[in-house]
Task: structure prediction
Amino acid sequence: MKIGNIDLGDKPVLLAPMEDVTDIGFRLLCRQMGAAMVYSEFVSSDALIRMVNKSLEKLKVCADERPVAIQIYGRDVDAMREAARIVVEQAHPDVLDLNFGCPVKKVAGKGAGAGMLQNVPQMLAITRAVVDAVPDTPVTVKTRLGWNEESKIIVPLAEQLQDCGIEALTIHGRTRAQMYTGEADW
Result:
């Protein structure tokens, strides 16, 4: 499997981004234990453009954890574009990942994360803007099957995201309404 020019092997194990879990120490441990690539906790685009110290701390990476992906989230095109530039300038990630899958009310309820599944034109505009803003960094997306059972849109959405120039797509096999419960649709 390749993302951009990063060869992750035939059947790579990737460490998923997890809030309050995938800090630099945990990422290093997972790389030592065989993870082909690790992801940061997700970082708010709004916090990055305001240069909030706690968010900037999440951008710290070291050589031993590479390849590493930094994941950002937000709902505004300009903020996501600028946050992408900040991430690339400060962290030099191997991959920049866009979170359109977080189902928690604090994020999705404000239109970010999985909330973007209710505003696909905005999601696509953000994706295009970020891909264009960081042309030398592979951009990937994480999303869900849809907002709820009645709005599973992943097949046409995947094609639209591909047309925006992303290098890979991660799909959580549940809808936003399912959160983290119920049976995943593999």
User: Anything to note?
Assistant: The radius of gyration is 15 Å. The mean pLDDT is 96. The CA atoms of residues 105 and 135 lie 32 Å apart.
